[in-house]
Design brief:
By secondary structure, this protein is of the alpha+beta class. The protein has two domains: 178 residues, no CATH class; 45 residues, no CATH class. Helices cover 25% and strands 28% of the residues. The chain is built from four helices and eleven strands. The strands form two sheets. It has a seven-stranded antiparallel beta sheet with strand order 2-6-7-8-9-10-11. Strand 10 and strand 11 form a beta hairpin. The longest helix has 28 residues.
Length: 224
């Protein structure tokens, strides 16, 4: 209990210091957009689960801003980067030209990343400098409505937010595409390097269902 109180105190204190020193610079940048005055407390709700995969605010940098930026957290369900300033909740203005780093994770916004023309933040997985191909992960949180059974045999379930299965994407010279789920689809993307890729997949026993294997594979593709 004491540790939780100490953490909350240090967070509020550090955020207050940040606000005092950087409010003017951030407002002047016209990059961060005010959206509400709810503070850091989330409204009470009967909905189980969370709109966040990580609810903590993390140290941040934004590549297209020279100013210092506040601790930020990613609301996966709403597709918003959130931060607190003067006890008010803000969203970071969406831009496909900036990289937002939260702790050890970096995100880029895409206006249309899927076949459904959805916009959202994708996490950058390979850390090479200026890579030809970039591997992205789309984290997902979905809303599951309340379930009320039609008979006494069923079990009632409250509405909930549930972490859904992530999808992976690769940036190609002609744009972003969903990462292949099997070898044959991958070879179609790289018709001039099929022999090398097949050999690598066999030697390294690459699984298309393992994120660490996909990162290893994308690093190899960048050597071709």
């Amino acid at each position: 209990m004491y540790n939780k109180f100490l953490f909350l105190f240090l967070f509020i204190f550090s955020n207050s210091l940040w606000s005092q020193n950087n409010t003017f610079a951030i407002q002047k940048s016209n990059f961060l957009t005010f959206i509400s005055a709810n503070g850091i407390e989330e409204p009470k709700s009967d909905i189980e689960g969370s709109q966040y995969i990580n609810k903590d605010f993390s140290p941040s940098t934004i590549s297209c801003l020279s100013e210092k930026t506040p601790p930020i957290r990613y609301n996966v369900f709403k597709e918003e980067m959130e931060f607190i300033l003067d006890d008010k909740l803000y969203y970071v203005k969406k831009s496909d030209s900036c990289i937002i780093s939260l702790g050890n994770n970096s995100y880029k916004y895409f206006e249309n990343y899927s076949k459904e023309k959805k916009g959202g933040y994708l996490m950058i997985l390979n850390k090479l400098n200026d890579p030809k191909y970039i591997l992205y992960k789309k984290e997902k949180v979905k809303f599951v409505p309340e379930y009320i059974p039609n008979s006494t045999y069923g079990k009632e379930k409250p509405a909930s937010y549930v972490i859904d299965k992530s999808k992976y994407y690769i940036s190609m010279p002609d744009g972003l595409t969903e990462f292949p789920k099997k070898k044959s689809e991958l070879l179609k993307l790289f018709p001039n390097n099929q022999v090398s890729i097949e050999s690598f997949l066999t030697d390294k026993k690459i699984s298309f269902s393992q994120e660490s294997n996909l990162i290893e594979l994308i690093d190899f593709l960048n050597t071709l």
